[in-house]
């Protein structure tokens, strides 16, 4: 079997076109959504992601505000940037690019984000609402990558009800929160959260109808681990240097041969990554619509 492709790039383009219309409607009401970013240091990956987010904003008509701080910024410097974005009426939502440099307490920083401006859904209030099921509608922001995975499957008409989903990776932004979404009654999947320390990871993966690979370990999901016909989403990213060109190359968690076994795969790049960016924009537009009443 050769897997069909869950084309995140094309789907993100469709979503951006929809968001462009919603932004135009907000502007007619006198509201311009504005995304702020806080970037600390000069990690090339983080710089590239943040640059991409600002380009995405320009494409759909969202204004953007940058807080770029040097690598040696103090905790107080980062917290001051958060304070400025909380106060700035032009900023309707913002993100703090993670990871923050060593020495900065990321949880303390996330706590200071105004929950109404939390475009990543990572403030404890918003993650708490997700756990507490305060609302299963989108009335508070959801973490972008989990939302991206569900939206990508939904746009291909793939129904998760009753499916066994194996999530590989226990990070806050993906693994831990996606199980909460998958097991919502509206989705009704069964989720297993595994990680690189799981005793028989291969057995868990092989038992799953759907695999969400978000461990950040290049090529770790091999064809032998995947049940024929399974759906495989490749979320993890590792940056490796290409030995021939010396340039950075992105590698996902899913080995190439999985395409010969699975029924659907999301490529990486071109899968969940572009969808994550689109969901960030969706979170910003959702919040601006809520703020506009
Ligand atoms: N506060 C915060 N929020 C995040 O959402 C967040 C973060 N920190 N830190 C890092 C991770 C990673 N992440 C990606 C977003 C887009 C692509 C993406 O668009 N990738 C392209 C390739 C991009 C390239 O070529 O460099 C693709 O998959 O096709 C990848 C990864 C968001 N993250």
UniProtKB/TrEMBL annotation:
Limits of the Tetrahydrofolate dehydrogenase/cyclohydrolase NAD(P)-binding domain: 143-291
InterPro entries, alphabetized: Aminoacid_DH-like_N_sf, NAD(P)-bd_dom_sf, THF_DH/CycHdrlase, THF_DH/CycHdrlase_cat_dom, THF_DH/CycHdrlase_NAD-bd_dom
Boundaries of every Tetrahydrofolate dehydrogenase/cyclohydrolase catalytic domain copy: 6-120
Reaction catalyzed: (6R)-5,10-methenyltetrahydrofolate + H2O = (6R)-10-formyltetrahydrofolate + H(+); (6R)-5,10-methylene-5,6,7,8-tetrahydrofolate + NADP(+) = (6R)-5,10-methenyltetrahydrofolate + NADPH
EC number: 1.5.1.5, 3.5.4.9
Sorted UniProt keywords: Amino-acid biosynthesis, Histidine biosynthesis, Hydrolase, Methionine biosynthesis, Multifunctional enzyme, NADP, One-carbon metabolism, Oxidoreductase, Purine biosynthesis
Superkingdom per UniProt: Bacteria
Name of one Pfam family that matches: THF_DHG_CYH
Keyword Nucleotide-binding in record: no
SUPFAM superfamilies cross-referenced by the UniProt entry: Aminoacid dehydrogenase-like, N-terminal domain, NAD(P)-binding Rossmann-fold domains
Coiled-coil blocks: none
Biological pathway: One-carbon metabolism; tetrahydrofolate interconversion
Keyword presence, rRNA processing: no
Residues that bind NADP(+): 169-171, 237
Family under the similarity heading: Belongs to the tetrahydrofolate dehydrogenase/cyclohydrolase family.
Subunit and partners: Homodimer.
Function text: Catalyzes the oxidation of 5,10-methylenetetrahydrofolate to 5,10-methenyltetrahydrofolate and then the hydrolysis of 5,10-methenyltetrahydrofolate to 10-formyltetrahydrofolate.
HAMAP family: THF_DHG_CYH
PANTHER family registered for this protein in UniProt: C-1-TETRAHYDROFOLATE SYNTHASE, CYTOPLASMIC (PTHR48099:SF5), C-1-TETRAHYDROFOLATE SYNTHASE, CYTOPLASMIC-RELATED (PTHR48099)
Name by which UniProt lists this protein: Bifunctional protein FolD
Provenance organism: Georgenia deserti
Gene for this chain: folD
């Amino acid at each position: 079997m050769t897997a069909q492709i869950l084309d995140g790039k094309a789907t993100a383009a469709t979503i951006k076109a929809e968001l462009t219309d919603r932004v135009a409607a907000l502007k007619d009401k006198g509201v311009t959504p504005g995304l702020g970013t806080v970037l600390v240091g000069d990690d090339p990956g983080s710089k590239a992601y943040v640059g991409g987010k600002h380009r995405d904003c320009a494409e759909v008509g969202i204004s953007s505000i940058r807080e770029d701080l040097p690598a040696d910024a103090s905790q107080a410097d980062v917290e001051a940037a958060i304070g400025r974005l909380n106060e700035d009426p032009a900023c309707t939502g913002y993100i703090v690019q993670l990871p923050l440099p060593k020495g900065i307490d990321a949880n303390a920083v996330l706590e200071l984000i105004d929950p109404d401006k939390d475009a990543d859904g990572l403030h404890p209030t918003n993650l708490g609402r997700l756990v507490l099921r305060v609302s299963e509608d989108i009335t508070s922001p959801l973490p972008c990558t989990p939302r991206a995975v569900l939206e990508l499957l939904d746009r291909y008409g793939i129904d998760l009800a009753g499916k066994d989903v194996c999530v590989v990776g226990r990070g806050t932004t993906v693994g831990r929160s996606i199980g909460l979404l998958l097991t919502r009654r509206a989705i009704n999947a069964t989720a297993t959260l595994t990680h690189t320390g799981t005793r028989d990871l291969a057995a868990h993966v092989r038992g799953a109808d759907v695999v969400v690979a978000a461990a950040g370990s290049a090529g770790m999901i091999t064809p032998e681990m995947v049940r024929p016909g399974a759906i495989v989403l490749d979320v993890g990213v590792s940056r490796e240097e290409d030995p021939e060109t010396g340039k950075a190359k992105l590698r996902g968690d899913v080995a190439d041969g999985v395409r010969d076994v699975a029924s659907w795969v999301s490529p990486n790049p071109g899968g969940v990554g572009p969808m994550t960016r689109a969901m960030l924009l969706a979170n910003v537009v959702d919040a601006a619509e809520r703020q506009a009443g």
